[in-house]
Design a protein that fits this description.
This protein is an alpha/beta fold. It is built from six helices and 13 strands. The strands form three sheets. Strands 4-5-6-7-9-8 form a six-stranded mixed beta sheet. Strands 3-2-1-12-13 form a five-stranded mixed beta sheet, with no helix packed on it. The chain has a two-stranded antiparallel ribbon with strand order 10-11. Helix 4 links the parallel strand 5 and strand 6. Helix 1 runs parallel beside helix 2. The radius of gyration is 17 Å and the shape is globular. Bound molecules: fe (ii) ion (2 copies). The site of one fe (ii) ion (FE2) has 7 residues, from loops.
């Protein structure tokens, strides 16, 4: 029996945060321990942004130390709480100082494309023409390689006003959708930022957001401000077997 290729996705640990109940370090440690207790080891790990709450060096060092307990290559991308250059100092990501953190990785059966959806200094996201041109060219270079596209801000409307005001502009989401239409090998888009598990779609491709390892967002379509709730933290396990990709959302336990 063949074994699936496993990409674990953790999100939004917010190390250093004090704005919710609970300890973000303990939250990430518990998520890492949950991954370690899975019967199958991950082949790779993705952290989909908001690694550190204040972008402090000590916060990134803590993230790195905790992730080292997972014996798998780890890939990171920035969220609105992160600093691109601090991420470059603490993690091995390509690119030059001040530029968006985006790169492609050949994981074997799966190609991981990391896109930077941040707008430095703001919580809202953006996908400008340069970033989308980079994405278009990267996808054109490997048209037959099944691809998972990762970013921090999900390219969807959640239906929750407070979150959608902090999301990606509709025009940027549409522009991303136009790029995707040229590249059918992109089979899934994954994101964080909204601190909830949401399944949606863009240009016919599945979009999944995953819970935070720190604190969750309340499901209230009338909320005009971000509301938090004591729902269980979680993470995703993307399993690829024989060309089929199944994304499991697993509570931390
Ligand atoms: Fe976050
Ligand atoms: Fe965020």
């Amino acid at each position: 029996m063949s074994k699936p290729f496993l990409l674990v996705q953790l999100s939004d640990p917010h190390i250093g945060a004090t704005w919710a109940d609970g300890d973000p370090v303990a939250g990430l440690a518990a998520a890492v321990e949950s991954v370690r207790r899975l019967p199958d080891d991950p082949d790779a790990v993705l952290i989909s942004g908001d690694l550190a709450d204040n972008a402090a060096d000590g916060e990134y060092e803590l993230v790195r130390e905790l992730l080292e307990q997972l014996d798998a290559p780890t890939y990171v991308l920035p969220g609105n709480h992160d600093d691109r250059d601090a991420i470059r100092r603490h993690f091995n990501v390509p690119g030059t100082i001040g530029t968006p953190v985006q790169y492609a990785v050949d994981l074997g059966p799966l190609r991981l494309l990391v896109l930077d959806s941040t707008r430095p200094g703001e919580d809202r996201g953006e996908l400008d023409a340069d970033r989308l041109a980079w994405l278009d060219a990267e996808l054109a270079a490997a048209p037959d390689h099944m691809t998972l596209l990762a970013m921090h801000h999900p390219p969807i409307s959640t239906g929750i006003v407070a979150w959608d005001e902090l999301g990606l502009p509709v025009a940027d989401r549409r522009a991303l959708g136009e790029v995707l239409r040229r590249h059918p090998q992109v089979r899934r888009l994954v994101a964080g930022h909204v601190h909830r598990a949401i399944a949606a779609e863009l240009a016919g491709r599945a979009v999944l957001t995953v819970p935070s390892t720190y604190v969750q967002a309340r499901l209230d379509f009338n909320s005009v401000e971000i509301e938090l709730v004591d729902d269980p933290p979680g993470f995703a396990v993307h399993a690829l077997l024989d060309g089929e990709l199944a994304s499991h959302v697993q509570p931390v336990s």
